[in-house]
Amino acid sequence: MLQRLIAHWVYGTACCAVLLLVLSPALLAGAGPIFIAAFLHLPAYMLHQVEEHDRDRFRLFFNATLGHGLEVLSPAAVFVTNVPVVWGLLAVALLGTRGDAGWALLSAYLVLVNGAVHLAHAIAFRSYNPGLVTALVVFFPLGATTAAMVQRAGAGSLSWHLAGLGTAVAVHAAIIVHVRRRAAALRRA
């Protein structure tokens, strides 16, 4: 069963994103604008994940381009990165935003850094990469708007910006470390 979940998680993601958006008026009734913005990062990220991972596009593309044909990104690594790590960080940021609006910067930087990585990859390879459209159309406006809202509310201290940016960079750096280790192991084998 776990293998099926790892292989097909993205299809449930599409349904979850739509359900969260449909339920958002009821779930967010009375919530402040920063909490609403932080909440919207989850369904936005889910829609991005559908663009990225439908038919295993991102993993196959990543392995072909950055892995040079090696399976440096496995289905399990994709699942762990996207479900417990990304959804978990977005959930922590959302829950934290209830007490301090600065937590919303974690969500904002997570989408902004991911968008920047997609854009850099598109420029470097001069081609589309799975996830690029939602990164440009959804992530940049949502992340920038959220960061601006937090700043205007006076909750955007330097430490919150550094924590948000640092966490987002750390997630992407962890992926790179994993990929390099896996590539080295595959080359040795």
TrEMBL record:
InterPro entries in the record: HXXEE
Residue ranges of the TM segments: 9-28, 34-51, 72-95, 101-120, 132-152, 158-179
Pfam families recorded: HXXEE
Keywords, in A-Z order: Membrane, Transmembrane, Transmembrane helix
Keyword Transmembrane: yes
Source organism: Ramlibacter aquaticus
Protein's name according to its UniProt entry: HXXEE domain-containing protein
